[in-house]
Design brief:
With 112 residues, the protein is an alpha+beta fold. The protein has one domain. It contains three helices and six strands; from the N terminus they run ββααββββα. It has a four-stranded mixed β-sheet with strand order 3-4-5-6, with helices on one face. Strands 1-2 form a two-stranded antiparallel ribbon. Strand 4 and strand 5 form a beta hairpin. The two termini are 26 Å apart.
Length: 112
């Protein structure tokens, strides 16, 4: 709640009650008819991942390139996909995967 204006602050898109990615929400809407339970269908290859990297927004919770912002990350590093959560610059819950489908499953499995 904003103390100055008496209303809630808008802080990015929501994903089942948690922060999300604005562009990811658009892709879910257009490619899987808005059904967030089908999100893993988007990650069969790198094409959607690369789109997300190009269209990342500073208010997103899910991040697809390394940065200093808090959030949940799925990045490509040294030909592997790495997932982790970052809070105040501290990374935790790091896991590494050979392919994008496994990494996406790990990242999004808690969301639905």
């Amino acid at each position: 709640m904003c103390l100055w204006h008496g209303r809630r602050k808008k802080r990015g898109a929501r994903f089942n009650g948690v922060m999300s990615s604005i562009y990811l929400d658009k892709l879910i809407e257009s490619k899987v008819s808005g059904d967030k339970k089908r999100i893993l269908e988007l990650f069969q290859d790198d094409s959607v991942f690369l789109e997300l990297v190009r269209n990342e927004h500073s208010s997103d919770w899910f991040r697809f390139q390394e940065n200093t912002f808090d959030g949940e990350y799925l990045i490509k590093k040294n030909n592997k996909y790495v997932c982790f959560q970052q809070d105040r610059g501290i990374k935790f819950g790091t896991a590494s995967f050979e392919n994008i489908a496994e990494a996406a499953k790990y990242l999004f499995k808690r969301r639905y």
